[in-house]
Amino acid sequence: MPFNYIKSQLRDPAQTHYLVDSDFRTVAQGWAQADGTGPLDLWAHRNPGYVYRTGDYTTDVAAWNAARDVLVDFRGDTLYLTPGAYSLAATTWDVAQATITGRPYASPLIGCSRKVRNTTVTVTGAGGITLGTDSTGLEVSYLRFVPLTAGIVFGVNTTAPYLHFHDFLWDTDGITASVVTNFLQALTTAQAISFSLFNNFTWFIDAPQGPVFNLDVANQAVEIANFLNICSDTAGTYITSLLDMTGVDGHDGYDVHDGRGVLSNGAGAGAVTELILSSTAQTGAPLGHVTSFYGSVGYSTATGLVNEQASGDWDLMDCQLSVVAAGTMPTYYTS
Question: Which domains does the chain have, with CATH numbers?
Answer without folding.
Answer: 12-72 (no CATH), 89-332 (2.160.20)
